[in-house]
Design a protein that fits this description.
Layout: H1 6-14, E1 20-22, E2 25-26, H2 37-51, H3 56-59, E3 60-62, E4 69-71, H4 80-97, H5 104-124, H6 128-142, E5 146-149, E6 172-177, E7 180-191, E8 198-201, E9 216-221, E10 227-231, E11 258-269, E12 273-276, H7 282-319, H8 325-350, E13 353-354, E14 360-361, H9 364-374, H10 377-389, H11 392-395, H12 399-403, H13 415-422, H14 431-445, H15 450-459, H16 464-474, H17 477-488
Parallel strand pairs: 1-10, 5-8
Antiparallel strand pairs: 1-2, 3-4, 6-7, 7-11, 8-9, 9-12, 10-11, 13-14
Helix pairs in contact: 1-2, 4-7, 4-8, 5-6, 5-7, 7-8, 7-9, 7-10, 7-14, 8-9, 8-10, 9-16, 10-14
Length: 495
C-alpha cells in the first residue's frame, strides 16, 4: 500500500468501531466532533507532509524490514542520522501545527519494543521478536497510526502493582489461554489514542517476580472488543463547541488530545504478544521507551516554541513595542532557550549507538538531560510571551463582541464599533489581526494547547524526578572523582 494522504487517513478512522465517551455520553461520530477533530487534523498533517516532495527526506525512510518507502514515524532507526532526522521531523511537525501531532509515542514504542524483544528471545528462547517484526511490517505496509501506551493509573504509589487494594490499577494478565491472553486495566493520559488505528502496550515500571502478571506487552486494534476510551478535559475546551467559533479558539485547525484507555477483559492472540511474564525485562522496555520519548521532546516542543516566539514578536509589532530594548532581549532569551532544547535533542541523537537487535538508540544520559530541560524552559518561554503580549491577552472581549451590531452609543455606535475602536493598536495591523495573535498566545500559554506545551512538557515521558534519577544513575560520579584525584595528585584508591 502506498503512503496515505491526510484525507485518506481521516477516512480510515471512520471504518473503525472505536468506542469513545465524553461528558458522560457515547460519541458516535467522534471523527467530526468539534472538540476532537483538531487533534485528528494534527495527525493528518504528518501524512500530508510525507507526501510533500520538499519534506520527503525528513518525513519518509526506507524500511529495513520491507525495503519500501514508509512514513518515518513507523521507522526503526538505522543510524545516528536517522535519530537526528527524527528530531528535525518533529520540529517541522510542531512548526506546522503548533500542537501535539501524537505519533511520537508509537514511533518510540516501536524502537523500544523491537530491541527489548530481541534480548528477551536471546535469554528465554521466546518468539516475541518475530511477533513484533511481523506486526511492524503490517503497520508499515498499511501506513497505520499506533498509540504507544505505557502509563498506568498506579493508585497508591507507595505500593507495588500486586499490593494495590484494587488489582486493576496496573494493567495485567487475568487469564492465560492456549491461543492468547486476557488483559484487564487501563492506560492514562494517552496522547492521540482515539486517533490511532492500533495500540501498543508496555509495562509502566520495573517489576519483580511477585508482579509478573503485570509484565505484559502486546498490540491490539483500537476498536478491539472490550476496549473503550474516555476523553480528557482541556482548559477552555468547550470554546470549540461555540457556534461559529473562530478567533477565540486561538488555534482553530489544530489541537491535541488525551484519553483514559480501558481494557475490560480484552483478548490478545499469541502473535500479538511481545512480553508475557518475563518481569526482568520490564525495566529495560520502560527505560528504552522513556529514553526515546525524552529525545522526542527536543524536537516537537522546539517546533511549537518556534511558533510561540513568532507570535510574541508579532504581538510586540502590533503593540508598537518592537523597538524597545527589553522586548528584543526577551525574544533573544526565548530563542536561546528554544535552541538549547533542540541542541539537547540533536546531541543525544548524535551520540546514539547500535542495539543488539540492530536498531539505534539515543545516548540515555543526554536524552534525560534533554527532557529535564524541557520540564523548565517552555514555562519560561511562555512567561516571556505573556510578558510581551500584555494583559489584553486574557481580558479582551469575545469575538462575538467585536462583531456585534447591538447599538450601545449615543451616536448609534455598536458593541463591535466600541471594541474595534478601543482595542486598535499600531497601524501595521487591524484590530482583528491583533486579537487573533493574542488569542493564539492565550491558547498556547493558558488554553487547550497549554496541555501539550506546558503540562505535557512537565509530566510527559516521565515527570522531572524520573529524569533526575536516570541522570544520577548514568552520570558516573565515581569516574569524575577519579579524574579529580588524578589532577589533584591524590592516589587512585584514596577515599
Amino acid at each position: 500500500m502506498a503512503l496515505m494522504t491526510g484525507k485518506e487517513y481521516i477516512e480510515s478512522l471512520r471504518k473503525l468501531k472505536t468506542r469513545v465517551y465524553m461528558f458522560g455520553e457515547k460519541i458516535d461520530n467522534w471523527v467530526d466532533h468539534p472538540m476532537i477533530r483538531p487533534s485528528i487534523n494534527c495527525v493528518a498533517m504528518t501524512y500530508d507532509l510525507a507526501k510533500d516532495p520538499q519534506y520527503a527526506d525528513l518525513m519518509t525512510a526506507k524500511s529495513n524490514l520491507t525495503g519500501k518507502t514508509i512514513n518515518r514515524f513507523a521507522h526503526l532507526h538505522q543510524s545516528t542520522d536517522d535519530l537526528k532526522k527524527k528530531v528535525k521531523m518533529q520540529r517541522l511537525c510542531g512548526q506546522k501545527t503548533a500542537s501535539c501531532f501524537q505519533r511520537c509515542v508509537g514511533m518510540d514504542a516501536f524502537n523500544a519494543v523491537f530491541s527489548t524483544t530481541y534480548e528477551i528471545d536471546q535469554k528465554y528462547g521466546t518468539g516475541y521478536h518475530k511477533n513484533f517484526v511481523e506486526y511492524l511490517k503490517y503497520i508499515q505496509e498499511n501506513d497505520l497510526i499506533v498509540d504507544g501506551a505505557m502509563t498506568d493509573p498506579k493508585g497508591d504509589r507507595a505500593l507495588s502493582p500486586s499490593a494495590q487494594k484494587d488489582a486493576d490499577l496496573y494493567l495485567r494478565i487475568v487469564e492465560r489461554k492456549k491461543d492468547g491472553i486476557v488483559v484487564r486495566g487501563a492506560k492514562c493520559h494517552q496522547t492521540g489514542s482515539i486517533n490511532s488505528h492500533e495500540h501498543l502496550i508496555m509495562p509502566t515500571i520495573a517489576l519483580s517476580e511477585v508482579d509478573k502478571d503485570y509484565a505484559v506487552s502486546f498490540a491490539c486494534p483500537s476498536d478491539a472488543e472490550g476496549l473503550f476510551m474516555i476523553y480528557g478535559r482541556q482548559s477552555c475546551d468547550t470554546r470549540k463547541l461555540e457556534e461559529g467559533a473562530d478567533v477565540d479558539l486561538g488555534n482553530k485547525q489544530f489541537g491535541g488530545q488525551e484519553a483514559l484507555v480501558v481494557f475490560d477483559d480484552v483478548f490478545i492472540p499469541n502473535d500479538r504478544i511481545f512480553l508475557c511474564g518475563e518481569y526482568d525485562f520490564a525495566g529495560m522496555m520502560v527505560e528504552r521507551f522513556a529514553g526515546y520519548h525524552r529525545q522526542s521532546y527536543g524536537g516537537c516542543k522546539v517546533g511549537v516554541g518556534d511558533v510561540v516566539i513568532g507570535a510574541a514578536a508579532l504581538a510586540a509589532d502590533y503593540n508598537g513595542a518592537a523597538k524597545a530594548s527589553h522586548i528584543k532581549d526577551k525574544l533573544i532569551e526565548m530563542t536561546h532557550l528554544n535552541e538549547t532544547l533542540y541542541s539537547c535533542g540533536i546531541a543525544c541523537s548524535s551520540e546514539g549507538c547500535k542495539t543488539a537487535a540492530g536498531n539505534y538508540q539515543i545516548d540515555l544520559l543526554l536524552a534525560n538531560v534533554c527532557k529535564q530541560n524541557v520540564t523548565r524552559f517552555p514555562y519560561e518561554i511562555v512567561r516571556l510571551a505573556e510578558d510581551i503580549a500584555g494583559g489584553l491577552m486574557v481580558t479582551m472581549p469575545s469575538e462575538k463582541d467585536f462583531k456585534s451590531d447591538t447599538v450601545v452609543g449615543k451616536n448609534g455606535e455598536t458593541i463591535g464599533d466600541v471594541c474595534n475602536k478601543y482595542f486598535a493598536a499600531a497601524p501595521t495591523c487591524t484590530t482583528e489581526e491583533r486579537m487573533r495573535i493574542l488569542r493564539f498566545l492565550e491558547n498556547i500559554c493558558l488554553g487547550s494547547s497549554a496541555v501539550g506545551y506546558r503540562t505535557e512538557s512537565m509530566h510527559g515521558a516521565g515527570s522531572p524526578q524520573a529524569q533526575r534519577i536516570m541522570i544520577s544513575r548514568q552520570g558516573n560520579i565515581n569516574a569524575k572523582k577519579e579524574l579529580a584525584k588524578t589532577i589533584a595528585g591524590i592516589k587512585p584508591n584514596a577515599q
